Amino acid sequence: MMDFASLANQVMLRCDQLGAITQSPGIVDRRYLTPQHRQANDLVAQWMREAGMTVWQDAAGNQWGRYHSTDANARSLVLGSHLDTVPNGGKYDGMLGVIAPLAVVHHCFENGIRFPFHIDIVGFGDEEGTRFGSTLLGSRALTGRWKEDWQLLRDENKVSLPEAMAEFGLAFDKVGDATLKPDSVLGYLEVHIEQGPVLEDKNLPVGWVTAIAGAKRLNVQLNGMAGHAGTVPMDMRQDALVAASEMVLAVESIASQFGIVATVGRLETKPGAVNVIPGQVNFSLDIRSEHDHKRDAALQLIEEVFRDIAQRRHVDVNWQQTHHADAVHCDPYLSQTLSQAIQLSGHNAVSLPSGAGHDAMAMDAICPVSMLFVRCKGGISHHPGESVTSADVAASLQVIYRFLDAFSPDF
Q: Where in this chain does the record put each Peptidase M20 dimerisation domain (predicted)?
């Protein structure tokens, strides 16, 4: 009988150990192609070897381990997540998705349990994009979507991506060696903390993900007319900030109307003096949905409303799209198997979308994907307060094991 509680305690301890590998003392901060990235890879590789896995690091710096099937010619089921973090982040975002399946594989190894498929566990080197500003570098390397113009990316110290790779012992022009052949991969399962409050609100330890929201981001600029705060009458003003305020409220209203999420997270006012009418405002817009058509319809209406407000307020409005990622829907068979595994583990199999991006978005280009969310306290993530319980981790381990036991390579 599998002792999920003891395995969960081991997972918690290992997340503590990985969380201590940081480039900024006192906080969790581990970035792509740094000495701390290598140290994390080395530690995970050690644990993989102890679990009876064949270990390697690929041409993009991702850490791999394979638990071999009874069939040498079998295809692979990939499980994993990322090992990098945001600055001053938490110790479960990403890391849990590598260490949890590894604990299950270790148990299988010690008890002589094998499967009719290989189990590959991967710790992606870069998901957050913290160092070079472009996300999912690790997983996109596996799908053949590594971009040539990434050679121009530089970090805050002006170190280029090719230079950082060379320092790490890799070569920018050899990243193609990391690309996986789609016919070698059965599917991808990513275990991840929810990063939201839904599971906590439902008092459930785990849930399965229906889709990863597609997102668009825009920068919006309003140009009005700056003027003296005491001398320009209210009905003669071209106040860019008042117009922006109406627009922010419109974003909230339209998002609610369409059942999506939209956020104005940054707003800058110029000239920014206490006694000057704001002449220019720049703000960001992040809009997401698991249904791209809903997101795009909402955005179209938002743009129409922005133009109406600008005309009425006598300001000019311009916007530029800076990001576009379509929604990724999880595979029906993998999701069904995951849902059944949750039920067999004694829990209500609730489904929910992911509003945050994950490596599964990239992996969808080459194989079916699925995700298991684990409850996190207060929905807090990307923050030192990020927290999970050992009991919830134990629940996730049981689900992973039952998923592997039920998974058929012939689906």
A: 212-311
